Fold this protein.
Amino acid sequence: MDSRFTRVDPPQTSALPIAEPGYPLIYAAAFATLIFALLEISALAILGLIATFFIIYFFRDPERYIPEMENAAVSPADGRVVQAEVVEENPFIDGTCLKIGIFMTIFNVHVNRVPCSGQVENSVYKPGKFLSASREAASTHNEQQAIILESEKGQKIGFVQIAGLIARRIICHIQPGDKVLRGARFGMVCFGSRLDVYLPADTSLNVAKGDKVKAGHSIIGYLP
């Protein structure tokens, strides 16, 4: 199904866009590399340089063009679909829902984007474990930050940032009462993680387990 695309965030002004949470780590790694180089500790200087470039790569924040199709729900994360099925119950939305789980490795872009336009109703933080985010148990047991919003058509939508095996920081910039646009940036989870999306059960699924998706760009389903 064809769709036009648009941009919902202000255009990036940098040739190499970096997510804001990455700058302190980049500066720290670059500073340590400089010190090792001045002290002529070659091995540590090389390791520091490699670490600096990897952190820049990890926190990259490329532009994304968002489908304009009215009923489209887009992926909130880059990664691989590890779950796409109807579930009878969940902690966030009442009743049966379509659940789509997306696993992000350390090599994926980790900036998260809103799957549907609407108004944020609730924000729920839950402490927990740090199991591998590719496992279904991570949805239940891992540290997570859930957002529940009401779409422009009054539908309840949930999307959950879930910490992974080595992730220790969940960043979420939206709060209850905020009006958000499909595809807009709303946060990130650092160093490997998972995003779960809960859509109405009669949503037309547009992805399958194993598919690779891009945040804000890939359509994961069409709302009823």
User: Anything to note?
Assistant: The CA atoms of residues 3 and 115 lie 16 Å apart. The mean pLDDT is 89.
